[in-house]
Amino acid sequence: MRFTIGFVKQVWAGLLVLLALTVILGVIYPAAVWGVGRISSGSAEGSPVRDSNGCVVGSRWVGVDPQVESGAPDPFFHNRVTGSVSDEDPFAPGDPATALPTNQGPSSEILATFIAERRTAIAEREGVRPDQVPVDAVTGSGSGIDPHISPAYAEIQVPRVAEVNRLDEQRVRQLVDEHTEGRQLGLLGEERVNVLELNLALGLTAPSCD
């Protein structure tokens, strides 16, 4: 008899623990995570960035070059090259859905050729000497879709952007300064410029949105 009563008590205690953990871990915790994710500025939804019309033009954490028609004036700042796992095109766009960089290592002849081709093309586009093209302009980041560039890469793009947009170069440099982020905690990393937000300040808009 005592064994039966003790067994029943243990069963009820186990069921109560199961019910409590189900409520805490299956309802309260997920609801809390969901709520905290939406308190922040859209990070749970991919940190979307909107233009002046309210249309989503990209994500704050994904670097994608704005689309410019071939032969048309290029009014915007460019991101770092995204790299390509196909290893066929030195300027092939990466896939934001996969976030894959190139699979070529530092000793790769293909990578060395790509870097040389990128340096020549970027120098021609920006009207500078090849040795003035910063390293981050010709190499991809670890994710392949870094949204930031160095202030040095932004600087060599200023004259072109100012000319096409008919702005004073000093005004464009001011916009670059306004969108330059400092080191994390004042110690980690380097100063960087968020290209999408900078291009929004220059008037980048989505082609259309619902």
UniProtKB/TrEMBL annotation:
Region (Disordered): 78-105
InterPro entries reported in the protein's UniProt record: KdpC (IPR003820)
UniProt main location, coarse: membrane
GO molecular function, one term: P-type potassium transmembrane transporter activity
Compartments reported by the entry: Cell membrane
Protein's name according to its UniProt entry: Potassium-transporting ATPase KdpC subunit
GO CC terms: plasma membrane
Protein's gene: kdpC
Annotated membrane topology: Single-pass membrane protein
Superkingdom of the source species: Bacteria
Family statement: Belongs to the KdpC family.
Function description: Part of the high-affinity ATP-driven potassium transport (or Kdp) system, which catalyzes the hydrolysis of ATP coupled with the electrogenic transport of potassium into the cytoplasm. This subunit acts as a catalytic chaperone that increases the ATP-binding affinity of the ATP-hydrolyzing subunit KdpB by the formation of a transient KdpB/KdpC/ATP ternary complex.
Assembly with partners or alone: The system is composed of three essential subunits: KdpA, KdpB and KdpC.
Keyword Magnesium part of the UniProt annotation: no
Keywords: ATP-binding, Cell membrane, Ion transport, Membrane, Nucleotide-binding, Potassium, Potassium transport, Transmembrane, Transmembrane helix, Transport
UniProt entry tagged with the keyword Ion transport: yes
Membrane-spanning residues: 12-34
